[in-house]
# Entry
Amino acid sequence: MKKNIPWIIGGFLLGVAVTIYFAHEWLVRAQQTERPGNSLDNPIDNPRDLAGLSIKIPRIRVVHTIDPTQEGGSMYLQEVDPWLGYMWGKSLINRNFRERDGVYGDNGKIEGVLLPDGATKMMDRSHTNSCGSCHNVPYRDAGAGMTIAKNGATGRNTPHMFGGGLIEMIGQQIRLQAYALADTNRDGWISKEEAKGKRLIVYNLPEGAPGRVAIDLGSFEEDEYGAPGLNPIIYPVYVDKNGQRVAYAKNLKHPEVAGYQIDVQVFGWGNLYMPFRPPVQTTLRAFTSGPFDIHSGLQAHDPTSYTSVKRDAHALVSNAGCQQFITQATKDRGGVRAPTKTGLPGISLDDPDRDGYCEEISEGDMDVAECYLLNHPAPARGRITADVKAGEKLFSQIGCATCHVPDWQLLPGNPKAKDYTERLEGDRRFFNLHVAFNDKTERMEGKLEYLVHKVKAPANPASKRGALERLVPKRGAFTIRGIYSDFKYHDVGEDFYQMQFDGSIVKKWKTAPLWGVGHTAPYGHDGANLDLESVIRRHGGEALDSRVAFTKLSEIERRQVIAFLNSLVLYQTDQLPTDLHGRGKIEPNYKVQSMNTGEECFNPEWLFRVPVKIEGPIRNIRGEKIISRAGVNIRAAYGLDLEFLRDTDGDGFPDVIDPEPLIRGYRDGVR
Ligand code: HEC
Ligand code: HEC
Ligand SMILES: [Ca+2]
Ligand SMILES: [Ca+2]
Ligand SMILES: [Ca+2]
Ligand SMILES: [Ca+2]
# Structure
């Protein structure tokens, strides 16, 4: 009997191991968008996608770092391996989040911002598990999509986020230009005195540039409601005589209020201004944490967004270089933090939605998601025919371009400027994808242009690797061609009014940027127009003259305007034939890791520090010869063994912040 004891114990332990192993595999199978396997893996244990387009990384929270040498941290992913960071960010936008990631909570409950009746809320919560279920056209990119129940029964249509970073940067530039005009004593806020007699007039392009227009965004002075008389694109945040926020002030008449700071609401279709209602999220970072919460029940714990050093309107500047605003602080405030074995700040145990899952989205997740959206390629021009050219001219002639302003310029950054209003950020992206229709090959093609300096970073003593190279944005000037908006709210007539659930009426809308519009039907904030002609004919109010001018055009001319609008297109980024290295051609047999990947295309995986190696030619289950584009080096390519990404127990909390790195606990790293 004694002799058998080791066998009995051994057998018992084996049983436990097998149970743990299969329990784990069962959980893996529950994933949908995540398919890391290749043809050699058991498809049940390790779901595969031989097209190689699915998400290849498990859900692991990215850890926020500001030191780029901390391998696998968010600053490393931003500057040392930015394409890898881009793909981690992209995975957050495309992933179907699961129960064990903390998705949902109070499904379908009426939620969101209060409407003016003070009781009705704007929408319902926790209705889908992925940004990608709405931002879906084109698939896998940050595209446009469906109309959802929001604000009122007529709904809100999902816009695309192509070129989202350029829009964010225009907004931040307008913000600084406003301060340059009105904050005379440069103390960072606009006093009632300073506001006197001043108007906010901005220009899309620098002096002397053809196409430069003045855009009047209203008066800095108090209007009849006691608020600044600025266009609703500008959202005021009231401050006292020390420049600190007075969160409970409704307008400038409040006795404590001495002036205001501003947010610039360049995103979203349009909202009714209401005191105490936070602005539409004004940065990409905030317009990610907000949707994660309302659509998917995932609350971000983002100190970047809730830390305000001066207790004014400003939170911190993100890693990607964008000023954040306290009006958009995330719900999870990290009141109680879990211990860590590394001394790093632990995860937040606050669990604002009380579903038992903690720190559902981390600050590092926000960093990489922001970087992805900041750098997301912009829309492009499709085939430019004679009709398209004629339509483009007509578009200007009949007055469409007075609101749909074609071009904007981002002024160069100069972080050293003494005057804070001149401390412009410049173009903070790390690359630009130039996309155009090639008449010879008759298709859309891309050319990749880097916007970075290469800077040597000191080697991390903890790492076996040598000195690292950082790719740091040059923050130069950039001219944005063909965005078609003045970023101003207009009353475009009753046919566009939206009656909200509570009976209040939204009358003013931000001029919809028309880039990509050829591919984003249905149209209007409510998606009520299924084609372009009908949304144009719907224009009235401030756009009445140009609508009338449009209807007076001949049939042929109207078709030309439509042809022009249809030439403003989106495209599937990862399929786009692209010259990745400025060689002046697109390689038909592009080799990566000695494998022939086919035609050179915009696949960020080819540009990682450790590029993905594809499996290549194999025979599939039916004996057909196929090229498997599944990866065979996923752990190395996607950095899964880097210090800050390694998640030994596979519970989504990386070892460095996991309170128990060897005990799997999807809720808080332990349970
Ligand atoms: C249920 C559908 C849905 C989901 C899911 C969704 N969105 Fe949206 N998104 C919308 C709609 C609708 C709007 C327009 C809202 C408005 O203006 O009223 C929008 C607007 C945006 C905008 C502003 C774009 C612009 O240029 O105006 C951004 C950025 C954005 N969403 C990001 C996200 C992110 C990031 C996620 C995932 C965390 C996400 N969205 C999930 C429907 C969705
Ligand atoms: C007074 C400013 C103004 C003028 C002039 C104007 N528009 Fe618009 N346009 C808007 C606004 C504001 C919206 C957004 C409406 C909404 O949110 O429902 C819009 C929406 C659109 C859309 C729908 C975009 C989408 O993504 O759904 C198209 C297309 C469009 N305009 C084309 C035109 C054309 C063509 C002309 C000239 C005949 C024109 N516009 C003139 C302000 C203007
Ligand atoms: Ca949740
Ligand atoms: Ca939770
Ligand atoms: Ca872990
Ligand atoms: Ca753990």
Summary: The radius of gyration is 26 Å. The chain is about 20% helix and 20% strand. Residues 102, 104-105, 297-298, 353, 355, 357, 360 surround calcium ion (ligand 3) (CB under 6 Å). The CA atoms of residues 13 and 235 lie 63 Å apart.
